[in-house]
Input
Amino acid sequence: MTNLRHEMIKLEGLSYHLLPYLDGRLSRPALVELLARLIDQGAVEVHLENPAADIKTLLPEMVESALRTLAQAALLMR
Output
């Protein structure tokens, strides 16, 4: 994929799955809920460093991290 600076970018992980939904219609909590549903449905796999951790409690920070990654990669517009 090409970013706003016309550079080639390879997306992985949650950033890859999150990008198609970042059209401004969903709030951060709605994105968290969406990803929780996708994980429950098996459409998205998340591998945690601590397998005992609860994915639902970690998702908000994971979404924030993915949004930071996308912003730093110049894939988001204001």
Q: What stands out?
A: The chain has a mean pLDDT of 89.
